[in-house]
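REQUEST ID: PR-0412
SUBMITTED BY: lab tech R.K.
PRIORITY: routine
TASK: structure prediction, single protein chain
INPUT:
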Amino acid sequence: MVRTAWFWVCLTGGMALGWAPPAVAQAVPTTPARGATAGTLPPPGTPGGAVVYQPGAAFPASGQFFSPGVPQAQLQPAGYLDPAVDHAGENAAQAPLPVQQEPEPEGPWQQARWITAWVSGSEPGLVEQKWDSTWAFPTLSRDYPLVITPGFRWVFFKGPDRPHLPAQALDLTLDLRWICPLGGGWMLDVAVTPGLHSDFQQETSKAFRLPGRLIAVWEQSPQLKWLLGLTYLDRDDVQFLPVAGVIWTPDPCHRLELAVPKPRYAWCYYQDAQLSRWWYVAGEFGGGSWAVERPGGQIDVLNYYDIRLVLGWEQKSKTAWNAFVEAGYVFGRNVDYLNGPGDFEPDDAAIIRAGLTF
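STATUS: complete
OUTPUT:
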């Protein structure tokens, strides 16, 4: 964990010291988009961009969520910081929309999303499939809805035979999120994510987890927002992840999320009245925790985590599906069991990930 902490310090510090916004060659409309962000860890899920909905991203973390009557300045901060829900892809869809005024969906349904990821180069290899759907319901104020996201993730493990790994593991989650205004530019981003996490080969209470997060956001100006909070993962290997940092948007085409656990820089290189295209670089915490049945019938808990550094491309459109694709490097990998032998540290690997939001 010391190596993990040092990585985030170096990555976020490097972004702060080495990045400066390029000059914009043409006048860029500054009409704000409307929406809300929520994905690994990752990812984080993660979450997670205009305003983007990451759970994870965990990402993390990482599609679009739009609520009628909600201006961007109210709901944009902190939504991408969602490692408890998705360690693998939330931050992939978090680039802001600089010019498009997205149509607001009618009714509570907001979006659906599919993400696939492939980690290879060293055993164990991973193949991940994730589907989720976002719904919004008014609470005390229509401007601050309750956001409900049921999700399903399917993880396939590829070797080694020793130590024994399950052929597959599944996450069945329900993310409940509410952004509460406090006045004076302050708000709270509160969420709990009950879920079942197991190989679904046995019945055990160890499969149930109740992660949550509490993030305070201060909007100092429309361009600068500060974050401070904590994410509870309800895992045996990593119980908590701190949330701290700043989101700086100097102009509509550049966005620097200098924050842990998901630092990210996004640059819009093309935009017109219908779509925008982005490049981004990001770091995230990936992995998961599942109740599994070991050889001989023993019930145990498998914990896996890694650190991911990715380069991604994304397109956001008013008339077509939003899409992203990214590739990167996976390191700091660790596999351990709660009760039995078999812990080991896999070698570094590569990751390719893509997704659609509609």
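NOTES: Residues 84 and 233 are 5 Å apart (CA to CA).
REVIEWED BY: pending
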